[in-house]
Amino acid sequence: MTTIRDVAKLAGVSPSTASRVLHDSDMISEATKKKVRQAMKELDYSPNYLAQNLANKSNNMIGIVLPVRHDQPALSNNPFFMQIIQGIVTVCNQRNYMVSLATGQTDEELIKNLTTLSKQGQINKFIFVYSKENDPVFDYVQKRTEAETIVVGSPYAKVTKRARYVNNDNVQAGKDLTNYLLKRGYQEVAYVYSNLSEVVQEDRYMGYKDALKAKAEHLLCLESSDQAELVANFLETNPEVDAFVACDDMTAIFLQQILTRLGLAANAYGLAGFNNSLIGQLVHPSLTSVEIHPYELGMEAAKLLTQATTKNYLLVEHTIIKRDSTK
């Protein structure tokens, strides 16, 4: 089995220099890096990061923490999370980091899985791809004094060097999307959410609320496409509603499916969501949505975690993409 010493010998450098090249150290010249990388290629050398972590009590691994969901397949099918993960992995590959995913159907299960990951891989860098108030999972990670954490979403705890964040301005995005509908002639806009304890949904709601000003709020909690009776009752008690802002594209599509099953015309209500997911482009009518650039969010989160910087946060811009589900 090829070792870093073999690479160093072929390249004519010390093992410590070869190791620094592996970690893309700024201390090593480009000429030396080129020599060492060529030797790695010739020897077909692949570093065993897990073994290095265990031996050195250091880490070249990042734990990606997904939100608790009772329905894990639904989580894995959500394109928003998959795009964030792709962005994280892109940067980690460039910087010689490995990633491990932590999931769970309950807080307890997720914490147990994180404990196992931490012990086996000496992981002390984590990216939470969600933000939730009073989250016992986040609190568990923060209690580990050596842990560095990036949150994709609004910070729900004090931002420190160990707990930083990458986000969109979701309050402004919620306000912009609601105003977009109002300017196109919709009179009474409802907000559809699945869990307001998730900070991103609450932030978008606050933006929606701010845009309404003196207008009445209409709130609908929708967790799946199997709640036709709930939606029918909502429409009956809120006949003035003519448009919906959904907390994300999946929730918007659940509502769209229900409206179709209730026999309503495709253009009976204006409908818009967030994330600009591929599935939102494929449904009929295609979904007006806010592009929040999840791939870029993932990339920036990984960059913030793997480079020396004094930055505690970074904001990514958003854009409204008009499609057929609105005027």
From TrEMBL:
Any Pfam family: LacI
Record key words, sorted: DNA-binding, Transcription, Transcription regulation
Entry-linked Gene3D superfamilies: 3.40.50.2300, lambda repressor-like DNA-binding domains
Xref: PROSITE patterns: HTH_LACI_1 (PS00356), HTH_LACI_2 (PS50932)
All copies of domain HTH lacI-type, residue ranges: 2-56
PANTHER family in UniProt: HTH-TYPE TRANSCRIPTIONAL REGULATOR GALS (PTHR30146:SF109), LACI-RELATED TRANSCRIPTIONAL REPRESSOR (PTHR30146)
CDD domains: HTH_LacI (cd01392), PBP1_MalR-like (cd06294)
Protein name in the entry: LacI family transcriptional regulator
Any one GO molecular function term: DNA-binding transcription factor activity
